[in-house]
Amino acid sequence: MKRIALSTLSLAILAVSGAAHAQSSVTLYGVIDESIQWVGNTKNAQGQNKNLVGLYAGNISGDRFGLKGAEDLGGGLKAIFQLENGFNVNNGKMGNYNGNNLLFGRQAFVGLTSDQYGTVTLGRQYDPLVDMVQPLTADNYFGSTFATPGDVDNNDNSSRTNSAIKYVSPVFAGFQFEGMYALGGVAGSTGSGQSWGGAATYGIGGFNVAAGYFRQDNSSSPAARLANGGWAANATSDNIFQDGTQIQQAYASAKSVGNASVAAQYVAGPFTFGARYANVQIKPDGYSAFQSTERFNVAGGYLGYQVNPALLLGLGYVYTHGAGDTSASYNQVSLGADYNLSKRTDLYAVAAYQHANGTQRVNATTTQTAGASIGSYGYNSASSSQEIVSLGIRHKF
Known about the structure:
This protein has one domain (24-396): Porin, CATH 2.40.160. It is 4% helix and 53% strand. It has helices spanning 128-132, 139-142, 222-226; strands at 3-4, 23-43, 49-57, 64-74, 77-86, 96-97, 100-101, 107-114, 118-125, 161-168, 175-182, 195-204, 207-217, 256-268, 271-283, 294-308, 311-323, 328-340, 345-361, 367-369, 385-396. Strands 2-4-5-8-9-10-11-12-13-14-15-16-17-18-19-21 form a 16-stranded antiparallel beta barrel. A two-stranded antiparallel sheet has the order 6-7. β8 and β9 form a beta hairpin. The radius of gyration is 22 Å and the shape is globular.
């Protein structure tokens, strides 16, 4: 990362109490990730399966640029902030979140941090599962190709949360915890559109484990839901249905989404072993376009091999089973290779195959034979299988 010192204050102010000293700095940073992608068995506008070849931006890491900074307030206390914009390198458009193009859609927060007491931040932020559980999964290394089908457990960070108050503790002998609450801000209906959750992580030697729970509530206003395709624009959390994946898109009118997740990782020499599990419950109410709770159980495994300091190889497997409203299963196998040309630039190749079976919901009155849809790309297949291969370059600054 390139560090740009925008202002450095070094002031000696004489007073009865002595001298005060403050320093501040701002860092400009970013990622540009671009790939050539081939997708087998994806539906065209006529609903027919065809092969697709094109450029795809943000494959392993979402394209972004941002500013983050800190000011030393003395006594181990700092003021901090972060503003992060998402964009598409292929067309220059800003990122779209919950149906809105946002200037700082990835992150926007300000807060205080202390080595002794922890960190409090306020604004648009990632939830505790993204902060603590996701880094122990395959998605952390190889992105969307290794993510959960439909991203039903937000393993690929499809959702962020507005109006959030977050606390992150210091690390106590390898243990750390985090809690977050997002205020709905609706007069007379405090809980409408709220989000809340917590997570904890523990690490010792090469072993790390993390677990947590996060709940997203939809707006209690039926008009607000209808105006935004089911998940209200004024709900505090972005919806996990926005990529249009047929695995979960019919549940966008849900009352709430609850996600309990756990992941573990063990590093032994050049090998990294990982496992994870998530239980996601998508619940309806009288305004929903489905009647029974849909439950997704997700189990995954990852094996990484650091061939040398420059080359990382990865193998991932994810099993996803949906039951309750409809019943379907998805088996997905992923492969990846990442080669560092320098500290800031790398080349990568990722591929995946998925097979689906069972039944999917299309809308309130219609179901269909389950079609495949790899990761969180939103490519829907009219058949039970789908393949994807991407060759890309990523540059960090």
